[in-house]
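User: I would dearly like some help making sense of a protein record. I have put the entry right below:
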Amino acid sequence: MTTDFDKAASGYDASFTHSVIGKRQRRHVYGFLSEVLEKHQPKTVLEVNCGTGEDAIWLANQNIRVTATDISEEMIRLAKGKSNAANPVFSQVDINELPKHFTGEKFDLIFSNFGGLNCLSEVRLELFFRNAAQLLSEKGQLILVIMPRNTIWEQCYFLAKADFKNIFRRKKANAIANVDGQKVITYYYDPKEAVTLARHYFDFRKLNPVGIFLPPSYLEPFFRNRPSLIGFLDKLEMKFHKLPFLAKHADHYFIFFQKR
């Protein structure tokens, strides 16, 4: 796993962070996230699966003290190269060992963006919820962006290609996802499954689709030179992105929990 993401790190910003689709999807996440930050005003954030640090830097610019972690040494190296400030602090940490690494520390908010938690099996994901509850302050927030099983864009894409084997690939117990040329075992979770796994530690608060009209990032080559089309899809996204029932059909979904 570490080696896979180390290999993917060099191309990640080009293929997603700075891509036409990636920037638009991220902007929608920041819109939802800003609403939570404004209401709850967390002072400390722990980001898991931080990748190359784009979200950690954005959070730090909101005057929040940010600790950002990733299992990949190369992702962390690239993230550190983006920021010269003391905030955020980047550390290479295995998500399964968070309590051990942050013994005695508490955070007001834990955040994971764009499917980082989809690398966890069901058992590991439930363990993450338990660990997150231990690391959060009283009534702390947990915000996750997860990939669901029933993405309409993906099903239509494979249907159009007559690739019937992959139309419902996300429904497989341990599907394979392509991350910048690296094949990574991936587990997809619909919102109800995430709520069920978190139920002993968190109360569900909010759900929004991310990428219900905006396409998945692997369609970037098609949309890169079609600004009018992607702009039209983005307008549709803005119109419907507050409808929670669409979340299970989107490319990702934004889900907000509060610690009990």
Strands lie at 44-47, 65-70, 89-92, 107-112, 136-146, 175-179, 182-186, 202-210, 252-259.
